[in-house]
Amino acid sequence: MRLSKIKLAGFKSFVDPTTITFPSSLVGVVGPNGCGKSNVIDAVRWVMGESSASRLRGDSITDVIFNGSSARKPIGTASVELLFDNSETTLEGQYAKYAEIAIRREVSREGISTYFLNGTRCRRKDITGVFLGTGLGPRSYSIIEQGMISRVIESKPEEMRVFIEEAAGISKYKERRRETSNRIKHTKENLARLYDVLEEVEKQIKHLDRQAKTAERYGRYKEEERRTAAELLALRTHDLDDKATEADRRLAERRTRLEEQVASQRKLEAGIEDARTRQTERTDLFNIVQGRFYKVGSEIARLEQSIEHAKELRERQEKDLEQAIHGAREIVEHIDKDESEIAQLELTLNELVPGLEQAQQTEKASRESLEKADAALADWQQEWDEYTQRLNAAQQQRNIEQTRAEQIESRIQSYTERRKKLDNARTDADQEQLKKRFDDLTAKEQRKRQARDEFDRHLADIGEKIRKLREQDVKLTKLVDERRAVLLAAQGKYASLEALQKAALGEGDEGVQGWLEHEGIDGDQRVAKRLDVAEGWERAVETVLGDYLQAVCVDDLDPLTSSIANLKSGNVTVLLQGNAASPGTDNDAMLLAKVGSAPASIAGMLAHVKTAATLNEALEIRNSLGDGESVVTADGVWLGRSWLRVSRDKDAKSGVLSREHDMRRLKNEEREFRARFESSRKLLNDGRMRLTQLEERRETMQSDAAALLEEYSGIKSALESSRYQMDQANAREAAIAEESNEVENEKISAEEQLRESERLVEQAGSSLEELDAMRSTLETRRTELRAELDRVRAQAHEDRQIVQDITIQFESRRSSKESAAQNLERMQSQLTQFQSREREIREQLELSQAPLAENKKVLEEQLNKRVFVEQELGSARKLVEGVENELRELDQSRMQIEQKVEAARAEVSEAEMGLQELRVRREGFAEQLAQTDFELEPLIEEMAEGATIESWEDKLEKVRRRIDRLGPINLAAIDEFKEQSERKEYLDAQLADLTDALATLEAAIRKIDRETRSRFRDTFEDINTGFKRIFPKLFGGGHAYLELTGEDLLSAGVTVMARPPGKRNSTIHLLSGGEKALTAVALVFAIFELNPAPFCLLDEVDAPLDDANVGRFCDIVKEMSEKVQFVFITHNKGTMEMARQLTGVTMQEPGVSRLVSVDLDEAVKMAAS
Asked: How far apart are CA 61 and CA 159, in angstroms?
């Protein structure tokens, strides 16, 4: 396989469609610098899948599109197509059968790339897959661009290994190994999860096994418990039945005793009622006598109280008189005593007055002396306070100024340091670098914004197209649905008519239809389907032909005669097709004229039937009918000379011809409807396909736009950050200058403040020295004043104590005199009151003497009256007491009988309650027994005769204890154990499958590793051998070799060791540029010898070589051109001479590349001729 053509359109400087042909294995591309030669290399790498814009010498993938020049506008797309000649079937696999392979890539301004392989759209992965293992690729060793020679020879060992692997063709093995490794990883993850699940399932199975066995024992114990409980219930029920019978007997006896007691109670209650009536009468009489007795007693009590009150009043008055006389006598004695005491107190007070006045004068003088001493001490204290205040002020001022001076010195120091920092910050600020970065980002942001706007415009256009297509899709969908509905309606109607027609023509008879199929004539037409009847005459033809309409038209009757016996059931008519008659060939009055395409036999039948428009016209024609002739009307009335036939059936066989006519019409309509439906559906599908393509394109564009927007956002953010940094730098520069001035001014001000503070500190020191001299004088004066004050204060205290003592004595005597005077005045007032009271009491005693005698007389009369009433009251009381005694005895008897009745009732109630309790318990036991699904009688019969409730309770308790010992029961454990066991079997099978799969994958990995090691080892040795052989050729001596950097052939890197003739370089980096280029060429050609790529592109590889080395280089290229096609770009004449065809690239128009090709072999021939 070799490269035959490159077609470029809109790619970089190749704006016009350009085709570069490569007819030979040595093609040179020449031209001046900047004319676009390297764009050819970029085009090849780009179409083979290069996705990095920087490797294509651009900022974005859209930079490969022609961006305009001074004379041309930018274009919207770029396209490059490579055509390969595969006549020698270099490629393997599905493309081996193609003699030519075309690979094309297109890109639009939206950044959307489209790949085509042999004209079919494909993926980038498909393109790279075609060349996998061939040595071709966007970054393979077969394409050597400018500067790549030095990069190849200076590559890291790991990067150098990639070239060897590509030459060895093991890149596909690495891809398979990666996929296999991923599968192994996933398989191991699945195995780990499966082991975890299995471990958990095994734990569950062990646990469920124990639970299942326990559940089985629980089931057996539970069944035994249920049986024992039912038997116990049966025993208890039977026992309760016996107890209930005994309780019924006791209840009857108690009820009989209760009735006897109730009869005695009622008899006694009648006697009590009679006694209560007598009691009421005698009680009323007693109450009347008692009322009179109480009245007399009340009057007597009133009189006695009146007399007693009068006596008590007189005694009290006499006693009050004695008290008044005695009180007056005592008051007179007190008055005499108080008068003598007052005279004695006046004498004592007169003696105390002179001493008190003298003591008060002495105390006043002492107080004045004390006030003078206090004033002198206060004056000293004021002077001392003034001294202290001046001292404190001086000390405070000195301390403040000292502190202030220290602070000012600290501020001056900080100002100095701050000024240094500001100077350093001003020095560190790099405005030029920030401005340069801002300008770069501004340019990038503008380019990205333009690209974004272009994306937005294209997306808006596509969105508008999608909107219009969607509106069109809605309309077309509606149209398709309408036409589908019309088509389905027509098909349904046709199917209904077809089914009726088949029934009418007898095609539903299975026997006849089977015979027709056996004879091979089931596809022949029926008569009804062949006839073409004039409109309006269908009923007439149906009436005349009748069952002949079902007849089958055949070409020959003889073959059918031998198989008539095979027709077991049904009716069938077979006619020869003959020559069909056309309407209008005979007499127009005959029915045959109304029918076309009729078989000959049918035409013969219709040729003797005349037609009439109406029945009357037919009747007129009937008289002129000949032998064998008849007449029929359009509505189906058929007349002969001696007969009449009318068909008015409404069954399926009627209307066959009209139905056939409708079917033909519907068939035509169906074809028309189907054509319209298919047309509209095709339009709909085309629109939807276009809509899908546009939506896919929009999605791709949106994805690219999102990536562009993200990139734009990053640049925008960086631009804003740069702008902010510039603004900050400018602001900081201004702030630094302003702050420097402020710092300098503040420093000068602080120095002035420091000098002022130092002056004030010296002044405060002088004031403190003067105040120290004043302090001793003030302290001596304070001592003298305090001694004088103590003496005067003691004398004043002594004089004040004497005055207080005399004053107390004087005030005491004066208070006693005033108290005695007040007592004397009060006694005189009381004496007057006692004398007045004595006179009032004497007057009252004289007035109370007369009423007392009258009351005593009335009292005597009332006492006599009460004696008589008392006798009557005693008689009435005896009568009442007799009745009450009788009634009391009856009540006692009643209480006794009531107690007996209540006791009897209690016994009856107790018996009823006991019986009810037994019945309730019996019902409860019966209900419990019914819940156990056992019956009472069979259980009683099955139990042993000696069964007791106590023994069965013990038996039931033992069963329940066994159940309790089982602990918690999982009744679902049996089913769960079965499910988990089945799950474990399934998981074991899965585990075995995964283990086998893992073993298979690991074996595949080992096989791939063995193959990779083997291929890499062989390839490395072959390339190393070739490299050792080619290197001396290119250098004219010296030696070079390849060396592995590790032991493992799967990961070991590759280094190049080269020593040109006469040199002992320790490393490849010490070689000159030309030596590096020759060494790289030797290595590349060694690779090409082993695994020659279909072609090799060399971009100015010979640039660093001198003429001698260029000659050797050309010799090697010529030798290699037997196996590899070389396309080289060069400025070297020696290299140009090597080429068999030269393709010149010029740029006559600014920014636009053009080709000029020369076939040197043809030129030599022309020159020779």
From this structure: 25
What's this model's pTM, rounded to 2 decimal places? 0.36
By mean pLDDT, which of 40-54, 767-781, 1002-1016 is the weakest? Answer: 767-781
Reading the block at residue 805, the tokens are 């003592």
Terminal CA-CA length for the chain = 34
Q: Which strands make up the sheet holding 143-144, listed edge to edge?
A: 143-144, 1095-1099, 1125-1129, 26-30, 1141-1149, 1152-1159
Q: Give the C-alpha separation, 729 to 224, whole Å.
A: 98
How far, CA to CA in Å, does 90 sit from each of 334, 337, 449, 828? 167, 168, 47, 166
Q: Report the candidate in 210, 60, 27 with the shortest Cα–Cα distance to residue 974.
A: 210
Tokens 């256009």 locate to 461
* φ, ψ dihedrals at 20, nearest 5°: -110, 120
Long-range contacts of 683-690 (CB under 8 A, 24+ apart): 683/476, 684/473, 684/476, 684/477, 684/479, 684/480, 687/469, 687/472, 687/473, 687/476, 688/473, 690/469
pLDDT band for position 116 (cuts 50, 70, 90)? very high
Task: Give the chain's length.
Answer: 1169
Using CA atoms, how far apart are residues 32 and 1130, in angstroms rounded to an integer?
10
Helices (H) and strands (E) in the chain, counts: 21, 22
Q: With DSSP H G I counted as helix, E B as strand and the rest as coil, what are the percentages for the chain, rounded to 5?
A: 70, 10, 20
Helix axes 431-504, 656-847, angle to 10 degrees: 120
DSSP H helices in 429-523: 431-504, 510-519
* CA gap 146, 168 in Å, rounded: 25
pLDDT tens digits, 142-180? 787 766 766 677 778 777 777 777 767 676 666 677 777
Q: How far is CA 151 from the centre of its chain?
A: 53
- Please compute, for residue 568, the number of CA atoms within 13 A of its CA located in the half-sphere on the CB side: 4
CB 1104 within 8 A of CB 1132: no
Count of Cβ atoms closer than 10 Å to residue 162 Cβ:
18
Extract the tokens encoding 90.
Answer: 């270099």
Which among 255, 243, 258, 256 has a CA at the least distance from the CA of 916?
Answer: 243
C-alpha to C-alpha distance for 570 and 550, rounded to whole angstroms: 12
The span from the CA of 395 to the CA of 360, in Å, is 52
Interstrand relation of 637-639 and 630-633 (parallel, antiparallel or unpaired) = antiparallel
